[in-house]
Amino acid sequence: MIRIKGREQAIPSSPAVSLLNLLQRNSVSIDTVCGGRAQCGRCLVRVLSGSDKMNRKSQREIVRLQALGAGEEMRLACQSYTRGDIEIEIIHPHPGTEDSSG
Ligand code: FES
Is the minimum distance from the CB of 32 to ligand 1 under 6 angstroms? Predict the structure, then answer.
């Protein structure tokens, strides 16, 4: 399951669907400009637990994360997959649909 900081609802994980798509399918507010092509960096998430259960970062993702100045614990949701239990924090909710997460 995917747990999201500030939300009750957990989302079933899937190794075949990107984190970004899973969040969007479940109406979790997360921003994207490039539509999942590792270009905009708006889908940034902080992995609070379970990073060992996620796919490895691709070169493309690493380059983008470095350009954003993002630390080791950060991932691009559009480039991330998991089959296990993880917990994440969404950095940029979709504008206009702000969650009230503390
Ligand atoms: S959606 Fe643009 S980098 Fe992930």
Answer: yes
